[in-house]
Write a structure and sequence with these properties.
This protein is an alpha/beta fold. It contains three helices and nine strands, in the order βαβαβββαββββ. The protein is globular and about 50 Å long. Bound molecules: 1-O-pyrophosphono-5-O-phosphono-alpha-D-ribofuranose.
Length: 185
């Protein structure tokens, strides 16, 4: 398809595919160093983090495992409802594990805060947090972030896992969405 996304849907590219690749490799090196001698367990939050998790885990040297959780907060709307519900929990216990919670984006921080509390209550050896994107100028960070890819202005963004109405997760870059979110695909 030559015109994808259609012109009306894509504003500007905020982070190119190459910039993402370089930053993810840096994060992978940092995690490799910080957790040398351990076997970190990456916990990805579906669905937005899948692309990031897949690239991040391949940029970590040495043993690494992955698990996923699914939560429902935004649904198909564009603003956070603040309500977090666990739709899919972890497959295996994390007691004694070195866990890294991986998100694609931190907006209000409510999802990450809820998940950090949920995971800490299960007795991991350590818990770190990682997000590819955070909103610029968040005044009241809900949780401490250990690994961050990029800070973004408060625009509605798509690509590299981020969607509108489930579309555009497959774009290799991150760009602003300028279309009609209610129009559907
Ligand atoms: C996004 C993102 C986080 C959450 C962040 O998920 O992946 O889970 O919103 O928002 P917050 O910081 O305001 O809590 P979304 O609900 O869009 O689902 P998806 O990952 O399946 O696209």
């Amino acid at each position: 398809m030559t015109n994808y996304p259609p012109d009306q849907d894509l504003g500007e590219v905020l982070v190119t595919a190459e910039q993402i690749q370089v930053r993810v490799a840096e994060l992978g090196r940092q995690i490799t160093d910080d957790l040398a001698g351990k076997t970190p367990l990456l916990v990805g939050v579906l669905k937005g983090s899948v692309i990031f998790v897949a690239d991040l885990m391949r940029s970590i040297e040495g043993p690494v495992e992955v698990d996923f959780m699914a939560v429902s907060s935004y649904g198909d709307a564009t603003a956070s409802s603040g309500v977090v519900k666990i739709v899919k929990d972890l497959d295996a216990p994390i007691a004694g594990r070195d866990v890294i919670l991986v998100e694609d984006i931190i907006d209000s921080g409510l999802t990450m805060k809820y998940l950090v509390d949920h995971l800490l209550s299960q007795g991991p050896a350590s818990l770190r947090t990682c997000s590819l994107l955070i909103r610029e100028g968040r005044k009241d960070p809900q949780v401490q972030l250990d690994y961050v890819g990029f800070e973004l202005p408060p625009a509605f963004v798509i690509g590299y896992g981020l969607d509108v109405g489930q579309r555009y997760r497959n774009l290799p870059y991150i760009g602003t969405f300028t279309g009609d979110a209610q129009a559907g695909g």
